[in-house]
Design goal:
five-stranded mixed sheet; 684 residues; 5 strands; 31 helices
Length: 684
């Protein structure tokens, strides 16, 4: 321990001593510990020595006079320790778990960290029925939250929630669920957040333990605020009395709104909903609001606050025109206000660089089933956020329907842009079926947006399933059951009859930074690989069009085309590849069953590339080049380049802009080139 302090002090300039001497001491310490390990037969003592050896592997001057740590070394010794500790009941496992929490900001991203902590949690669970392990998961979650790393915190809280799920520790489960709900809301995944708020409220209410009931209003407040964030403002109106009654029943000094800041947010949000609707001019919504308050009266002081022209609400909607109000809403919310009214319903969000939209009718039964699917999809995206699926930054649109005769079905359909799907859910489906199918459909949709092979995608999904993905998407009760538990059918059915206030065509969907599309070098990319591929393109694409290019170089309109493409950033290899593809398409067999990218297509390309263009072959003409717009030729070229990187474009509706962005930002599509002999006449 003293050596560790000395090493740290030396690194920070607080200790004037020779690094060579520190290195000598470190080597001596390691040798002594390893000598004792060879001689020790007592398993508890051996585990203690293994812990010291792992600590010694973290010392900065073990390799020499320059500070460095190879974190594979301490992980090797920690894993040896966990192998031995099963037979060492006196070794303090909690101390090691506490160390992992302290080191989380430093080594949390190391490959060995998660496997080690998972194994550590299992051992703690076997010793103490999982309760201590749950506490350690929670502590690590808080450490990651302090580091502004919500994804890692969510992973740890899911582990804590499961390990705490027992009568004796139900409080820990409830608090974990509430923290999960807040974290999902913080990263703009409203329906994942809503599920966990519903689950926490249900668990407290059904357990009916006086010691736990103080969390009932907290869970309902979280549910209300999540709905508010997602624009489900009529749902907020329907929840208001339930939330306020729970607050007045289970919180001490409920009228002290300064003390109960969370409940104060309910008051302000309710004011904003009421005053915003007045600005938007929906008499139907105002009448519904007043009807709900008449059915479930609020305390007089609260009723007056909500309906008054309060300064805080007016500050929020201080615009004079509805258009200005929408701009404020656009900046601060994650959904269109009153999105839960009208004949049709849209769930929209952004995650992993994808714009997600799910559309359905707004009847309560369909909405409950579809929300369940959406929450599952959002939870899955978080679980995969730290994996690189090589996703395209595209749009996913899902048209969902729910009826008795339906069978679970997901079908990709042709659309205008991106990945388009038709989803059917049977209204009579069991909770297990709905959860299992929702998970399966989520993986199918993500696979279609990924440029990895189906096999590689499945490998990533299997790893997530092994780590408990299914348990994250199902908690306490099915989503649709929980939704119905806190809904009044009379008021839910009213939503479909109310006309939605005027809203803009689109509203900004905020994507959390931790769920942003992954850029940077793509899987398999390296500068040397790229240069090798580009050299191959020059060598292989030029022979089939060599004589045509010589002819084109004499045409002013061709030279102008080359100049224009170069000005847009295209390299000579782009232009040659485009011309070669045009030549190959011209030679392609006329066949109604002919499919670009098929085995026959690949064979024709190989043959054409091998033989090249002879002086006797008919030359290409400008008419051949311009018969199809140049922009379309360049788009079709993207799929050819994809194949060279072993990327697989799967969607029925090509999103060329998304594909191009992947190639540009991750595979050097517009920057990489190699020296080559002049091909085109100088266009300057």
């Amino acid at each position: 321990m003293l050596l560790g302090y000395c090493s740290g002090a030396l690194l920070h300039g607080h200790f004037n001593y020779s690094s060579k001497k520190i290195h000598t001491w470190t080597i001596a310490l390691i040798a002594r510990v390893e000598e004792l390990l060879k001689r020790t037969t007592d398993v508890n003592g051996k585990c203690d020595l293994l812990a010291h050896r792992a600590y010694a592997a973290t010392l900065q001057f073990q390799k020499g006079e320059q500070p460095s740590v190879d974190w594979n070394e301490p992980f090797k010794w920690w894993n040896r320790l966990l192998t031995e500790v099963k037979n060492a009941p006196l070794f303090p496992l909690e101390r090691l778990s506490d160390l992992m929490t302290v080191l989380a900001p430093v080594i949390g991203d190391e490959p060995g960290y998660s496997p080690l902590t998972d194994k550590l949690d299992e051992l703690l669970s076997s010793r103490s029925q999982g309760f201590i392990a749950a506490e350690k998961c929670r502590d690590r979650a808080i450490a990651f939250m302090d580091q502004s790393r919500p994804i890692r915190a969510i992973h740890e809280l899911h582990n804590a929630k499961i390990k705490w799920f027992a009568k004796e520790t139900l409080r820990g489960t409830i608090l974990s669920m509430l923290m999960l709900s807040r974290l999902y809301a913080d990263i703009n995944l409203v329906w994942a957040a809503k599920y966990y708020a519903l689950a926490a409220a249900y668990l407290v209410h059904k357990d009916n333990d006086d010691k736990l009931m103080r969390y009932f209003p907290d869970a309902l407040i979280q549910l209300f605020n999540t709905c508010y964030q997602g624009g489900e403002w009529l749902t907020c109106i329907n929840l208001l009395s339930l939330v306020s009654n729970a607050h007045y029943q289970f919180h001490s000094n409920p009228e002290d709104y300064e003390k109960h800041r969370h409940f104060q947010s309910i008051i302000v949000h309710s004011m904003i909903i009421f005053q915003s609707n007045k600005k938007l001019g929906s008499k139907e919504i105002e009448a519904h609001f007043l009807k709900v308050l008449e059915h479930w009266p609020l305390p007089d002081d609260l009723n007056d606050l909500v309906l008054a022209d309060d300064e805080s609400a007016e500050t929020w909607i201080n615009s004079t025109e509805p258009d200005q109000l929408w701009k404020r809403i656009d900046a601060e919310l994650d959904g269109v206000p009153f999105s839960d009214v009208g004949k049709a319903r849209t769930f929209a969000w952004r995650a992993l660089g994808i714009h997600w939209e799910v559309h359905c009718t707004n009847d309560p039964e369909t909405v409950a089933m579809v929300e369940s699917f959406v929450s599952c999809l959002q939870i899955v995206t978080v679980d995969l956020a730290d994996k690189d699926l090589n996703l395209m930054p595209t749009t996913v649109k899902i048209e969902a329907s729910c009826f008795k005769a339906a069978k679970f079905d997901l079908e990709e359909v042709t659309g205008t842009l991106g990945s388009n799907w038709k989803l059917e859910i049977p209204s009579s489906s069991s909770s297990d079926d709905l959860n299992s199918w929702a998970l399966a459909f989520a993986t199918v949709i993500l696979t279609s947006c990924s440029l990895l092979s189906g096999e590689k995608c499945n490998s990533i999904f299997e790893e997530s399933f092994k780590k408990g993905l299914q348990a994250k998407t199902f908690v306490v009760r099915p989503y649709h059951d929980l939704l119905n538990e806190f809904s009044q059918s009379e008021f839910e059915k009213a939503k479909i009859e109310i006309q939605r206030p005027h809203s803009p065509d689109a509203i900004c969907l905020h994507e959390a930074e931790v769920l942003a599309w992954k850029g940077g070098p793509g899987l398999g990319y390296s500068e040397s690989n790229s240069e090798e591929q580009i050299s191959n393109r020059y060598n292989r694409a030029l022979p089939p069009v060599r004589h045509s290019i010589a002819y084109f170089n004499g045409l002013p309109e061709f030279r102008e085309l080359v100049r224009s493409l170069r000005a847009q950033g295209y390299k000579d290899w782009h232009i040659i590849l485009m011309i070669a593809n045009i030549a190959l398409n011209k030679k392609a067999p006329v066949d109604t069953n002919y499919r670009p990218g098929s085995a026959e297509d690949r064979k024709a390309i190989v043959v054409a590339f091998e033989h090249g263009e002879s002086p006797d072959d008919p030359l290409l003409t400008m008419e051949d080049l311009l018969r199809t717009p140049i922009e379309m030729h360049l788009k079709m070229q993207l799929s050819t380049v994809c194949l060279t990187w072993r990327l697989f474009f799967k969607s029925q509706t090509p999103d060329f802009e998304a594909l191009r962005r992947v190639l540009v930002e991750r595979y050097g599509y517009m920057t990489d080139d190699v020296p080559h002999d002049p091909i085109f006449v100088d266009t300057l």
